[in-house]
From TrEMBL:
Phylogenetic placement of the source organism: Bacteria, Pseudomonadati, Bacteroidota, Cytophagia, Cytophagales
Keyword Nucleotide-binding attached: yes
Domain ABC transporter stretches: 9-238
Pfam families listed in its UniProt record: ABC_tran (PF00005)
The species this protein was found in: Lacihabitans lacunae
Official protein name in the record: ABC transporter ATP-binding protein
Length: 249
């Protein structure tokens, strides 16, 4: 875990309702700089809604939250400038080449042209894509699209990158390689906030928050959670929490 103590995401009783339905139910947590923070939960648990609030895309109904020091109620446009975002569907344009995609998103992020040119060359070399740089992204394997999409999401060196189910649909080897990129980003001080439904990936996180029915049911390091619930892996933790929820505990 990062030894830095700077808090880059803070929430207190953060709540979001849609009519009579409470999607996010008074959640409270802090995330530190350079931390890999796993945000887990079944479909409908509220994790995507919470992430949308933290990304400045959705206003909360109550509670408080700051992201990169900016308030989610009043400074959502500032939040967007200081974060990166990658969804499961990725954000690349399939009818543009690898190089064109990097230039396009670098332009959106406001990276000056000379710096962008240098960053593009460095990124293509780091990913080993020299021979694919002028190929259409749509022609590339899913794993490569995934790596390019993540690299583009942190091209502007944001304080935080939000990854929404980033490894869905790729093979285990490619997933492991993708996590190597996450570790590299965290080592540079970028905070990684990741949602996943792969329980083995929870083991790669510094800390894990598990949401059940809109509320945080557990939050700690993977090791501490395994010990707390007396199970061998994070899948066991998740099953225990699901059983507790069914019993109304």
């Amino acid at each position: 875990m990062s030894n830095k103590t700077e808090i880059v995401i803070h929430t207190h009783n953060l709540t979001r309702t849609f009519g009579d339905f409470t999607a996010v139910d008074a959640i409270s947590f802090d995330v530190k700089k350079g931390e890999i923070f796993g945000f887990l939960g079944a479909n409908g648990a509220g994790k995507t809604t919470a992430m949308r609030i933290l990304c400045g895309l959705l206003a909360p109904s109550g509670g408080e939250a700051t992201v990169a020091g900016f308030d989610v109620y009043k400074q959502n446009e500032e939040i967007k400038k200081h974060i990166g975002y990658m969804s499961q569907k990725f954000s690349l344009y399939e009818n543009l080449t690898v190089k064109e995609n990097i230039h396009f998103f670098g332009g959106i992020y406001g990276i000056p042209r000379p710096i962008l040119k240098q960053k593009t060359t460095e990124l293509i070399e780091r990913l080993g894509l020299e021979s694919e740089a002028n190929k259409l992204v749509g022609s590339l394997p899913l794993g490569w699209k995934q790596k390019i999409s993540f690299s583009v999401a942190i091209l502007h060196e944001p304080k935080i990158v939000f990854l929404d189910e980033p490894t869905g649909g790729v093979d285990p080897i490619t997933r492991r390689q993708f996590w190597d990129l996450i570790y590299e980003a965290a080592a540079k001080g970028i905070t990684v906030f990741v949602t996943t439904h792969y329980m083995d990936e929870a083991e790669y996180c510094d800390r894990v928050s598990i949401m059940v029915d809109g509320a945080i049911a557990a939050l700690d390091t993977p090791e501490a959670l395994r010990k707390q619930f007396g199970v061998a892996d994070m899948n066991g933790v998740f099953l225990q929490l699901a059983r507790n929820a069914q019993r109304g505990e």
